[in-house]
Amino acid sequence: MVHQGIAITTLRVTWDAAESAIAYEAEWRRDNGNWIAAPRTSTQGFEVPNIYAGRYQARVRAINAAEISSLWANAPETHLKGKAGEPPAPLGFKATPIVFGIQLDWGFAPHTDDTLKTEIQYSPTSDGEGLMLLSDIPYPQKTYVMQGLAAGVAFYFRARLVDKSGNQSPWTDFLRGESSTDASWIIDAAGNQFLSAEAGKRLQSDINFTNEAILGNAALIGSVVQHQLKENGEMRAEILEVRTTQLSDKKALAEKLEKVQVEVGQNAAAVQTKATAVFDIDGNGYGIYDIGAGVKYNNQLYQAGMVIGAEVKNGKVETHFGVRANQFTVVNPSSGKLDPVFVIKNGQAFFNQVFIDKASINGADIQDASITMAKIADGIRSDNWPNGGWNLPKNGAFEMKGTAGGVRVALDHTGLAVFDGRGVLRVKVGKI
What we know:
Largest sheet: 7 strands, antiparallel
Distance between the termini: 62 Å
Helix content: under 10%
Number of domains: 4
Low-confidence stretches: 1-6
Shape: flat
Mean pLDDT: 88
Strand order of the largest sheet: 17-18-19-20-21-22-23
Structural class: mainly beta
Radius of gyration: 36 Å
Number of strands: 32
């Protein structure tokens, strides 16, 4: 058969009808390999397209109405011409860093539409030690995402194709992949994940200074309420506690709210704590405890808060600790006074002393540093390069530029070269 200008060899197996048979089960194999079952059929034959050259055997047995099978009937071994060699390896196998994961992509060579799957293995080292199966990806999918990794985790991957006849392509070379270390990506992703969780939603909620609404809802659902109130003109002080338990055929809930609040004219201040436990019959639930403090001043609400929570949703468990404030400070009392250890102010973090075992830094301005050993991924250069200074890229070449009259000195694997201000080579020591 010729398909789009390409010769395609098809294995065709046929047999005579058997008496009382309602169906047939057939198998085939190439070069004494494992038997491969053909789909059960009521006809007298089957085909396997795009076969490779080799020695082929086939066998069939009949099935009657009582589901009793006959003995196997074997066809003589036959040598067939077909595709030579083996399937081609995946094309363009690459790894892309993503937040808490690694994305793998590849392509397929022409005329590989008989591919069954792409097999991917991974190892923590480039030599394949401790090699493990990552996944079998069914054709024609050509993307796989390895998720649930910490930032900066690296593995080595290789891939091969397996066709419907069980033939395997060569493995690709090992490819290094690493989960993203881009702090901006990670912060955005982790922040969005937290804010969409129940704990994050609680931290985003504003304190309700209208206690009448809370009391009305409590009365509606049968909560137990304790309310202490004093008023004098525009001044108001109150303490409120609401306890709620609810059961339905699908969900159980227990909640306790405590709140202290004062009002003077249009201004108000409140502190609120709330503990909530919920679970439903589908296995989804959460436990959340939060503290909120706020002031309402000149018709503007200013609020700080803290929340801890544990949540399971669709079988995935997450725990959270969140803080809401424009300044977060940790102090050390060991000196007899409260010395700030670190401060987060308006989205920036300030540390007094830091010891880091391993760090990934996208950009840094360092005033003074003492480094025992550094591994540089790309290169190092002076901040005035390329107009002057020095440049040391990862390929090992070293270059310096003088500032007087544009004189330039270059030092690399070929030797030492000196250029004048017009860029003319004046001195060359080494390979000429």
